[in-house]
Amino acid sequence: MKLAHDLLVDESRARVARTRGPAARGWLRIYLGYAPGAGTTCALLSEGHRRAEHGTDVVVASAETHGRPQTEGLLSGLEVIPAAKIAYRGTLAEEMDLAAVLARGPAMALVDDFAHRNAPGSRHRARWQDVEDLLAAGIDVISTVSVGHLDSLADVVAKITGAAPGQSVPDSVVRAAGEVELVDVAPESLRDRLARGHVYPAEQAEAALGGWFQTGNLSALRELALLWLATALADGPRQHRPGDGDPGSGQARERVVVALSGGPEGETLIRRAARIAARSGGDLLAVHAARPGRPAGSSRAVLAAQRRLAESAGGSYHHLADQDVPAALLAFAHAHHATQLVLGATPRTWRAALWPAASIRSRVIRRGGGLDVHIVTCTPTAKGVPATAWWAT
User: Fold this and answer.
1) 305-340 burial, b for 16+ CB within 10 Å, e for fewer?
2) What is the pLDDT of residues 295-308, one digit of tens each?
């Protein structure tokens, strides 16, 4: 049974279709930032003013001003759709009112924080899915996203900042935007903006300057954003799926296979493989290779999450069951014309170190003629026990 809010969204979408007739899909533009305070929301609202001045029917569907006076001042003169209030844990959470925006039917909607996770009870789990409804209704959307919220970079950003992002968006969804523009600011300028109280209140700003907002961290995040955008621009539109040929190209397309054992290290491997594939403009194929037998319940849950991560990165997921795991993995890689193979490595025992030629990983490397093999060291789990992987035995 649909919730009342879902029914209202469906009714609003139908009303838009009746009044406008069949609409072309909306155009999506995204402003990419590398840190809080970099200016993506200001860029979003400033662009809204420019479009409105040129006659475009623009509304603000959501704007995360965080109480910053300069940002809040940019709302003046723009039509703002009031937020919907959703009951959650004894409070009322404010979320973008998707039904109201669809009912209003503007030519363009400004939707801040593309990766935002909606409160339970919303029509969709994430705001980027709300945006998909707006685009499908023929409404152009301008949005914002932080580099730390891209699925493929979550682990890298966590290492740089020491804090794991609380929300994320599939890279493929951002790459599919008609335009992605970096809102760039020098780390020194951002720190100065922070010190002047333009980002956080004084006490919070002082702590941030000595922690998350250190120049080294900001420089690393800025470089990460630049590299990701350069790769996305170089790759361009993708018109085929992994395993398809490249008719008329005359060149072999890079295909990156990442082997998964069902352990927690899989997320690290998928993200590393996704970055390799993105840099080379290639395809990502995640493969769970194991000996026959149903995996334990915990492994099934882990693999399901890893499948979602691989698909969100624009890749495909495959399962192989064979007594000879290395042979099956290599047969798959060669059948799909893979050019690169990503394997995990866990800390080895002294016995394994004495007979390296006997390890399954070594057998894969020896037999993998024509494949570039990447060995990624996997760190111990939170319980201090290294994750077990068949290729590290």
Assistant:
1) ebbebbebbbbbbbeeeeeebbebbbebbeebebbb
2) 655 688 899 999 99
Task: Say what the pTM is.
Answer: 0.67
Cβ(80)–Cβ(59) below 8 Å: yes
SS3 assignment, position 122: coil
The pLDDT tens digits for 190-217 are 999 999 888 988 888 888 898 889 999 9
CB 267 within 8 A of CB 155: yes
DSSP3 helix / strand / coil % (the chain, rounded to 5): 45, 20, 40
Cα(260)–Cα(333) distance, integer angstroms: 13
What would the two tokens of residue 19 be? Answer: 């009044």
CA distance 125 to 136: 17
Best CA proximity match to 111, nearest among 154, 140, 76: 140
Cα–Cα distance for residue pair 105/116, rounded to 1 Å: 22
